[in-house]
Automatic annotation (TrEMBL):
Protein name: Glycerol-3-phosphate dehydrogenase
Entry cofactors: FAD
The enzyme's E.C. designation: 1.1.5.3
Domain FAD dependent oxidoreductase: 3-322
Pfam families assigned to the protein according to its UniProt record, in alphabetical order: DAO, DAO_C
Domain of life of the native organism: Bacteria
Enzyme class per UniProt: oxidoreductase
Family from the record: Belongs to the FAD-dependent glycerol-3-phosphate dehydrogenase family.
Location of the Alpha-glycerophosphate oxidase C-terminal domain: 379-489
Length: 503
């Protein structure tokens, strides 16, 4: 019997599984699709305090998120790094004193260690912004590869003994006195297995309410509102290393973020939806909105024809009866349901990626009420897999010494994806030829094999969009070859099978 079964393989579910397994609990996590296949891979890719949340008096949430930036940057320096943001001043939208007051709070609500304080900036002729914008502000937040953050938490949970089951749908959960009987269907084989646990965790994100209705057969204790956030990716519209935060007349903000070296990521929108979260797509109105606000600020104009990729995710926000989507709290609530000493149920409502570790820690603290022999908190100072280094330059020099035949661009991508796990990706490789078939965009067979064997990858989308973002650079023909290769590798008769050039 498991101590804990966690339903949901997003950042909150994987964070809780990792924390609980690290404290000695026997944990199983099931996810009906790939890990990070929904909301947790479709964010703005930011570790940020949430400057605009100050306008809604979310001081506790902002303070917690600001402190977490430093913790996460230390624990995962490969998939996260500091990023400076430029906020152009538009006096008719927010007065200078208001922005300065907000930035003062941003700098002082939590002590800065790695990140730099804010300052005022002026824009000259070489600025990518239109000439009418003369000055603004600059402040610090962080960048994160959101999907890899989920994967690394799942890998850490597995290292601590957790059983991680992607492509596995929880179809029924029934209380049986002091434990739960949980039926899990493998979506590949269609086989249904029955597991038992002392406590159940509903971390299904946008489906948290559906789980109550369709799986647990109980009434949800809180309501959520589903808010669609959409992004567009275009060829980079400026060469600066900073991101930009743009104000709009509707009081919303839009980020323009450097993305995968050659692109700009623009988003997000806030649109309330009432549909299956897995079916949401960006609308023409959202595209027009993002294009319009971008063109209001930058000299280089874009159109819908410039868009190379879009994605939309649904954020499950706690229903606080706010009148607009952007005003809804990004805070989280943890609810425990237990009647007459029956097996407990913990449900997660709301949350944001920046505070996932604190949410997981708080959730596991609540779980500890039912498992008094659990050990104490541990994740604040624990590096995630591949993050056990402090200096990127030194790690790169070490990799160059061992793998001098790697290109500089590939080395950089490996470091910011795998960190010290790069040595495992390249295990047994003594030349470029040893890396196996090249699929395009410097994706080699050795990396594909690593992702299949160690990170639960089973298809091209897993590899091209969640374990990496190489989908932006690989064409359809190359994708077809990769699809066949993945099938070959998964079904290969032995570990030494080599993919042939004529696949």
């Amino acid at each position: 019997m498991y101590d804990l079964i966690v339903i949901g393989g997003g950042i909150n579910g994987c964070g809780i599984a990792n924390d609980a397994a690290g404290r000695g609990l026997k944990v199983l996590l099931c996810e009906k699709n790939d890990l990070a296949s929904s909301t947790s891979s479709k964010s703005s890719k930011l570790i940020h305090g949430g400057l605009r949340y100050l306008e809604h008096y979310e001081f506790r949430l902002v303070k917690e998120a600001l402190a977490e930036r430093e913790t996460l940057l230390n624990n995962a320096p490969h998939i996260m790094w500091p990023l400076r943001f430029i906020l152009p001043h538009r006096p008719h939208l927010r007065p200078r004193w208001m922005i300065m007051a907000g930035l003062f709070l941003y700098d002082h609500l939590s002590r800065l260690k790695t990140l730099r304080k804010s300052n005022s900036v002026s824009f000259g002729k070489d600025s990518p912004l239109i000439d009418d914008i003369k000055n603004g502000f600059e402040y610090s937040d962080g960048w994160v590869d959101d999907a890899r953050l989920v994967i690394l938490n799942a890998m850490s949970a597995r290292h601590h003994g957790a059983n991680i089951l992607p492509q596995s749908d929880c179809v029924e959960a029934v209380r049986e006195k002091d434990h739960w009987i949980v039926k899990i269907k493998n979506n590949v084989t269609q086989q249904v297995t029955t597991e038992r646990c002392k406590m159940l965790v509903n971390a299904a994100g946008p489906w948290v309410g559906d789980l109550f209705k369709n799986v647990i057969a109980a009434k949800a204790t809180k309501n959520i509102r589903l808010i669609k956030g959409s992004h567009i990716v275009v060829p980079k519209i400026h060469n600066n290393e900073q991101a930009y935060i743009l104000q709009n007349e509707d009081q919303r903000i839009v980020f323009v973020i450097p993305y995968e070296n050659d692109f700009s990521l623009i988003g997000t929108t806030d649109v309330e939806v009432d549909q299956d979260p897995s079916t949401v797509k960006i609308s023409k109105d959202e595209i027009d909105y993002l294009v319009k606000i971008t063109n209001k600020h930058f000299k280089r104009k874009i159109t819908a024809d410039d868009i190379v990729y879009t994605y939309s995710g649904v954020r499950p926000l706690l229903d606080d009866e706010s009148s607009s989507a952007q005003a809804i709290t990004r805070d989280y609530t943890l609810e425990i349901d237990q009647e007459d000493d029956a097996a407990p149920l913990l449900s997660i409502f709301g949350g944001k990626i920046t505070t996932y570790r604190k949410l997981a820690e708080a959730a596991t603290n609540r779980i500890s009420e039912f498992f008094p022999t659990m050990s104490g908190t541990w994740t604040k100072t624990a590096p995630l897999p591949g993050g056990n280094f402090s200096n990127r330059k030194a790690l790169k020099e070490k990799l160059i010494k061992q793998f001098p035949w790697l290109t500089d661009s590939l080395l950089d991508r490996y470091i910011r994806s795998y960190g010290t796990l790069t040595f495992k990706v390249l295990m047994g490789c003594f030349s470029k030829e040893d890396m196996g078939k090249h699929f395009g965009a410097e994706l080699y067979q050795c990396e594909v094999e690593y992702l299949i064997d160690n990170e639960w990858a089973t298809c091209t989308d897993d590899i091209l969009w969640r374990r990496s973002k190489l989908g932006l650079k690989i064409n359809e023909k190359q994708k077809e070859v990769l699809t066949k290769a993945i099938d070959t590798l998964i079904n290969a008769p032995d570990d030494n099978y080599q993919i042939k050039e004529n696949i």
